[in-house]
Amino acid sequence: MEIDQEIQSRFRNERHRAGVNLIYTSNWYTDKISTVFRASNLTMPQFNILRILRGASPQPVSVKYIRERMLDKMSDVSRLVEKLREKGWVNRHECPEDRRNVNITLTPAGQSLLAQLDTLMESQEATFATLTDAELRQLNHLLDKLRG
What is the reported pTM? Predict the structure, then answer.
C-alpha cells in the first residue's frame, strides 16, 4: 500500500513524502523484527551489541569500540552491556593495560543465542523477497547516497 493511503495523509511535495515514507517504513520494519527479540527478552540495541561482539570475536572490545559501531548512537552502551552481562550473554574484564577500560567478550551462551536468532532473522529478511536483487542494490545505493 502506498504511504498516502497507509497513513491517510497528503504531502507538500515528493521530498516531504519521501521523508515521511522513510520514517514510517523504518518504524514498520523495526516493529517487525523486534518481535523476534522480545521472545528472547532482548532489545534491538542489545542485539546490535551482541552482533558487534561476534564480529570482533575472539578479540575483546571496549565500550568505546562498541559505541562507535552502534546503529543507534544514542544508546547507553555501558548500561546495555551490564544488562547483557546480567543475562549471561557477555563478560566484562578489567583491561590490564588501562584499568579505566573494560574488555567485553561474548559468552558461549551469547553465541548460542545469536545462532538461534540468526535463523529467526533470516525469516524476517524474507520481507525483502518482494524486491529483486537489482532493486535491493538500487535501494541500498539510494539509502547510502541519501546519507551522503
Answer: 0.84
